[in-house]
Amino acid sequence: MADKPSIVLVHGFWGGAAHWSHVITELHRRGFGDLHAVENPLTSLADDAERTRKMIRQAAGPVVLVGHSYGGAVISEAGDLPNVQALVYIAAFAPDAGESPGQITQEHPPAAFENIAPDSDGYLWIKQDTFHESFCQDLDADEALVMAVTQKAPLGSTFGDNVTAPAWRKKPCWYQVSAQDRMIHPDNERRMAARMNPVKTIELDASHASLASQPGAVVDLIEVAARETTG
């Protein structure tokens, strides 16, 4: 619908744009017609933020920018463009200036931290045989298997890339905490959400993959952000 903003969705580590599939279909059902899902290279925060900015610039009119997991660091870095009206964080990192996802993780390691392993090329993977229990324990085994096999590994160095000037300090933001998250400690999510002073925080009884297991509730939050910032 013409009166609805563009929605730009930004994935995190160990997945691509298709991780948003259930959210995309639900947004479309609710009348959001201008939908974009960034496919980030996961090679550095700078690379991913620039790819996201290019997508934002292609969107018509105001944008609601949504990030899952590491995608939260990306939207924090890339969300300063003037047409971005709202930031929505879905079980996501929200680093402050000079912070990295790796630093935040080390301060409060999540339950599945030991299930991440590097390969000989410097990419980090979630071990396939532990992917279901680590990333998406509230999805069925078949969906988890597809996620495990198609996971998109980041360069390990990306974990250490610092955000420079977080957009959440200037733009209205919303945050969804996953209470059963094993990839980002739920207490880290609560801490990051609290310091952002978001318009609204919701907590779901969900895994890290809340965008797949509870897309209705995730879209509810996106819809509120769209309505309250763009009418």
From TrEMBL:
UniProt keyword annotation of Signal present: no
Lineage top rank: taxon: Bacteria
Molecular function via GO: hydrolase activity
Domain AB hydrolase-1: 7-220
Cross-referenced Pfam families: Abhydrolase_6 (PF12697)
Entry keywords, A to Z: Hydrolase
Keyword Hydrolase on entry: yes
Signal peptide: none
Name the UniProt record assigns to this protein: Hydrolase
Source organism (scientific name): Streptomyces showdoensis
